[in-house]
Amino acid sequence: MKKVMFYGPEDIRMEECPVPEPGFGEIVVQNKVALTCGTDVKTYMRGYPGDIPPYGFGHEASGVVYAVGKGVANVSVGDRVVCHNSAPCQTCFYCKKGIHTMCDDMLYNMGAFSQYQLIPKRIVDQNTFILPDTMSHELAALMEPLSCVLFGTERVGVQLGDTVVVNGAGPIGLMYIALLVSKGARVIATDLSEVRLKMAEKLGAFETVDASKADAAAKVRSLTPGGRGCDIAIEATGYPNVWESNIRMARKGGTVLLFGGTKAGTKLIADANLIHYSQLTIIGLYHTSPQYTMAAFELLKNNVIKTGDFISESYTLDEIETAILEHAKGQCIKNKIMLDA
Question: What percent of the chain has pLDDT over 70?
């Protein structure tokens, strides 16, 4: 089988290796479709904080069960499935407190850019879903990012009629826009890409701001009633200058969500008086939990988002580096890797 491995920034390698064999409680999935995402781009460019290469690359995929280990009861060979890329331990202090994203023993399973993938027992038990006949592999592969966005959307407590800015109209930002609009929010989108801003409009953003042509914070505030700022300001880029600009977009008493992961060692510079005297609530957010993974799968079954809005071009596994670099240009949303091509 072919598998893409990450060895370091701008160093990914296609390797031949045996098809894995499942142990107790495990399954092997023959991946059919994998998707690129902003995290893949950032990992390719600079690595991922805390991870030690080499390791499997990619984390959004869907496929067909190829082999099943002993002890697996609810999944069979031939089932079309989507498997999340992580699962908490459910036994540590944070899991018992219901803060699953902070699990002390979170199990991650990278390597979606491969023809076959071993799925550990914990993920089989908690975060593996059988696709209905009406769901495509492309749509199912959107489950992981959608689950992260669902977590963020619920965490900020958006209410009907709220004005919300989403900074960054990449895949994550666009999912935020789609969900926020469905919850009755008035959404402003900012980005540097005209292509992505047009998609933001299609998904329901009432105003868009080209951050390359204006002071984004000032422009966004001018689009709010009385120039007071947004009820909720969401950052979805992972760049510290956008984190700082995002804080300045919130109204007094507003909520600021800092979602996008930054480069290791990044420092945030913020106006302490603004935060204090405006009584801002600032939230950091990471990853997702089984609760929101399950909810994301249900939303996908109900066609809350559409593949045509998020998946741009199709590539083979041998073209993975091109797919990542094209994603990085910002002229597409996500790219699709066809793993049986």
Answer: 100
197 and 232 inside one domain: yes
State the helix-helix crossing angle for 38-46 and 320-328, rounded to 10 degrees: 100
pTM of the full predicted structure? 0.96
Question: Which ranges of 6-156 does DSSP label H, i.e. alpha helix?
Answer: 38-46, 93-96, 121-127, 137-140, 143-155
Q: What is the tally of structural domains in the chain? A: 2
Asked if residue 156 and residue 129 are part of one domain, the reply reads no
Per-residue pLDDT tens digits for 113-161: 999 999 999 999 999 999 999 999 999 999 999 999 999 999 999 999 9
Pick the closest to residue 323 from 4, 1, 17, 2 (CA basis).
4
Report the candidate in 289, 293, 309 with the shortest Cα–Cα distance to residue 177.
309
Distance of CA 328 to the CA centre of its chain: 15
**Domain containing residue 176:** 149-284
Residue 150's identity, in one-letter code, is L
Omega cis (within 30) before 54: yes
Helix, strand, coil percentages (3-state) for the chain, rounded to 5, are: 35, 25, 40
